[in-house]
Amino acid sequence: MTISILVTTAESRTGDAILAEFARKYAGINDIKVTGIIPTNVERNDRTYPSTELVALDVDTAEPQELERVMKEFDTAVFIPPASETKVEVGRKLIDAATKAGVKNMILLSDCCVLVDPERSSYDKFKKLEDYIMSKRDSASVTVVRAGHYMQNLLFYAKQMKQKPYLGLPIGKQKLAPIDAREWFCLSVRPHDLDSSQPMDTSSSYKQQGDVGMACLTIATSGKHMDHRYRGQFYVLTGLESCSGEEIVAKMKKAGFSDDLKFKDVPEQEARNFLMSIPGMDESEVNLLIEDFRAVKQGKLDLVSKDIMDLLDERPTMLVDFFKEYKDDFLNPQ
């Protein structure tokens, strides 16, 4: 019997990565079907991967009955909360529709910072969604995937590093363990398009694996009824190495970047102003990044989880490998 999987917010970095990973690893397997929901203002034809489908639907304004009709076709829903101020409201709306539609399996993409600082406003939104989806365990199998800081976030600073020979982050001397978010990440991607609705150039080369996308798919493809190993579980996905800003720069140099490159501990407001200057950045996404950095500076994100090893059959991406693969994007930002 066919396993049918729905991915919400499929235009996002993680949603797009899940579709791309499915196309890479599961293309040609006829008993698994993956469909993504994207907003109506996103061009479908330019974002379609082999063996996947897209549904154009504005979730925030859609009637609950409309969402329920769409979800009736699926065994599993992967909920990716939107990077907006309505994250909680939209997330609950989707979870309610899935419950009423009889979706058997639900996977929520959350944030690992819920573990270390759940009271902060950005993380509190994820915590509310975690609590809400776990309240549906009587009617569905539920898993929560808490993702750490994405390696791809470092691409935001490519232009800055090209203009000035430093990586500026407001983290002091503390450490973090970033994880690879994207799988077939286009070599020619523009940093400010990471979460935008702009289509990827599918004629370019792509990266081999995206750890977060593959981890979600491992759970989602485990059966029409989620494998018992994943039910009710909370997975924390981080990279396998915790690094300070200076150690991150050292890995960049090891990957072939300039020996003149340095790390600079910049003020939080300077970091916020820079992120807000990036075209297409939602303020709620900037707030989340700043809160991540604040947690790092307080020593709360010096966390390495091995959970990713339970969900991948390929070696997770290490920072040096990431910088080697993305070197052209850092050195020639668009």
Gist?
Helices cover 34% and strands 15% of the residues. It is an alpha/beta fold and 334 residues long.
Major β-sheet strand ordering: 3-2-1-4-5-6-9
Oligomeric state of the chains present here:
single chain
Helix content: 25-40%
As a percent range, the share of strand residues is 15-25%
Distance between the termini: 45 Å
One letter per element, helices H and strands E, the order comes to: EHEEHEHEHEHEEHEEHEHHHH
Shape: globular
What does this structure look like?
By secondary structure, the chain is an alpha/beta fold. Helix content is 34%, strand content 15%. The protein has eleven helices and eleven strands. The chain has helices at 13-26, 64-71, 87-101, 121-134, 158-163, 211-220, 245-254, 268-276, 283-297, 319-325, 327-331; strands at residues 3-7, 32-38, 52-56, 76-79, 105-111, 141-147, 166-169, 175-176, 234-237, 243-244, 262-265. The strands form three sheets. The protein has a seven-stranded parallel beta sheet, with helices on both faces. The chain has a two-stranded parallel sheet with strand order 7-11. Strands 8-10 form a two-stranded antiparallel sheet. Helix 1 crosses helix 6. It is globular, with a radius of gyration of 19 Å.
